[in-house]
Design brief:
Length: 248
């Protein structure tokens, strides 16, 4: 971590600051328009039918992928990473769930015909214990050893033949410093599905920094002079930075 005790933005007159702020505002408006364009392109993506049968373990027993829709047309699946060695949830996933997967948020999704399903590779018993500790009520399922996290790049594992992540193959990941071997490694990811009757289709999937938008405090940190304080950011000399695994 860098010492920021003397790291300050330059001090200018109000007129100079206003000119700089208006210049940045023009860039922000460009970014907003670009985001709108990208969102429109996302809505126009084609889709692919899910042919394999997956069964998940929930409080009410075995559930199919179709069941996770809860009768709605759209389904957002969030991968909750698990720390196997400690039998506990990932701290970042925990913070994200605390902030996002509230009854108020779910009600807004449901109004727009979207269901949420959180999934983890760990056992249902571990999920239920952790869920009770946190006081959560959102739907959370165990994959129960099925192929879903491996087929959809949520867990990488050489022994399962799951060696791709974020649409990059094994060779590309190794070249980027990811590591020489994969063994039951959960990584950030989310998936979106649409159903037509009983047929289920994948429409979207994002990984790594593609999930930035679901970490609300990033939006606030991006407005501050110190930013997220992660070492991959372009920041003024002397700013605080913390090591961050930025492979993607």
């Amino acid at each position: 971590m860098n010492d920021t005790s003397n790291a300050l933005p330059p001090v200018v007159s109000r007129e100079e600051w206003l000119a700089a702020r208006k210049a940045l505002l023009a860039r922000e408006r460009e970014a907003t328009r670009l985001r709108d364009e990208v969102n429109a392109e996302r809505r126009r993506l084609p889709m692919v039918k899910v042919e394999k049968e997956y069964l998940f373990e929930g409080p009410d027993g075995k559930e199919s992928l179709l069941d996770l829709f809860e009768g709605r047309r759209q389904l957002y699946v969030h991968s909750f990473m698990w720390v196997d060695a400690l039998d506990t949830g990932c701290p970042v996933c925990t913070a994200t769930s605390d902030i996002n997967f509230t009854p108020a948020m779910l009600s807004q999704l449901h109004r727009r015909d979207v269901s949420l399903a959180v999934i983890s590779r760990t056992s249902l018993a571990s999920i239920e214990r952790y869920k009770a500790e946190k006081g959560w009520s959102f739907p959370w399922y165990s994959t129960g050893g099925n192929d879903f996290p491996y087929d959809y790049q949520l867990t990488v594992d050489d022994e399962r033949g799951a060696t791709e992540y974020n649409y990059r193959d094994r060779e590309d990941l190794t070249r980027r410093g990811f590591g020489e071997t994969f063994s039951e490694l959960d990584l950030p990811g989310n998936l979106v599905f649409l159903r037509d009757g009983d047929d289920v289709y994948q429409t979207y999937g994002a990984y790594a920094r593609g999930l930035d938008h679901i970490v609300p405090y990033y939006n606030f940190l991006d407005l501050t002079p110190l930013g997220r304080q992660e070492d991959w950011e372009e920041t003024p000399e002397g700013w605080t930075t913390y090591p961050f695994g930025h492979f993607f």
